[in-house]
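Chapter review. Work through the record for Peptidoglycan N-acetylglucosamine deacetylase before attempting the end-of-chapter questions.
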Amino acid sequence: MLLWPWRRLLRWWAGVVLVLVLTAPPIFGYGADPLTPQGIRQEFALLSARLRQTPNDVTVLNSLGILYARAGQLNDAILLWNRALTINPRYIHLYNNLGSALKAQGRVEEAVRVYQAGLAITPSFWIYYNLGLLEKDRGRYREAAHYFRECLRQNPRFEAAAQRLEDLGYVLASQQAAQGIPYKPPTDLEALSLTMLERMEGEEGGGEGAEPRPAGAPSDTRRPWRAAGGADLPVTMTVETCAAYLEKMAQGAPTRLVALTFDDGPHPSITPRLLDLLQAHGAKGTFFVLGSRAESYPELLERMVREGHEVGNHSWSHKSLVRLGPATARADLQRAAATIEACTNQPCRLVRPPYGHTNAEIRAMIHRSGWAHIMWDADSRDWQLSDANQMLARTLRKTSPGAVLLFHDIHPGVLRVLPVLLPALRQCGYRFVTVSELLRLQGSRS
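Structure tokens for Peptidoglycan N-acetylglucosamine deacetylase:
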């Protein structure tokens, strides 16, 4: 009988934590960020507890394997992913992760067999891309070009594969590979006004996170349907009092749309509960996810799409795009977009800069790349505040027809606010739409 070596893996964790603490990159922002060593330790504890309860949970095994791999513990990551494959050999993400780990260890032929086994299940553009890299590294350029072309057939917008083909001298081949695979964007972004795409709450220096606003960040607070003079906030935040306040803010607007957005996830515990809550209220949202976290929890992105939500790009590393500069920022966003598209099987067209840090150069880079630059109107500060009434008050002050609301699905505050806010919005006649839907519907007015 195969014994599950869980205790041995747990003993490894002391060394893993040390590696993570010493090698973790500097992350701008606030405490309990899941990209900090503290956040990683919390996440490991959460996943470990879940695995003890359900030892055959393939998604947890996959996520734990990624934590180990990022800490340099490839043998333990491989052990976890092999274990998961014995449970569910059709979980495609395992083949990509396992093949990449084997390649990193120099076990190239084993990596090829794993990648090919994954392709026998589904034609994943990520696996084709990694096979292309593997063949290029061992000097088999014709085979590498074949895999990069296959990658582009699956995802014509994957610029990394096109660039690799160009490096190999296959410029025309990379262009031909994308022919016959049309891409239709969700809306005509060029026809929309910049104020719709780039609205931003200007108070308190920058919204998401505690990072000070960098030079060049916008402070424009213009947005349609702002209630003149506002209204007095209710003392007691109930569904009824919130709905009454929202009615005053709406000022009789006949069409009432609102876009719920959630940044920094997915989180293994909070995001599933949030999805349950949205489903219970019949609400759709837009999740601006980190590529590094999408890689760890692909099943949550699959669920988002399955339940009608939209997935946007919040970068790979959650670093200020302004401080990275346009070229490095674009590479970071491209890496995240490729991972998100691999999880969702959909183009990822929306970008929200981490912390709301942006300037003219970053906006121009985003637009040149074919993405839409998305900000927000109302910031709940759920990452900072612990009192649900305070979070509701901040949100209500800036909520009127056409508003984009900002929450975070890595902090539990969102789960305390939405049970009151969602029914209040519904009672006031609001319809929940994704950001792309909001832009399309508002574009008809511009």
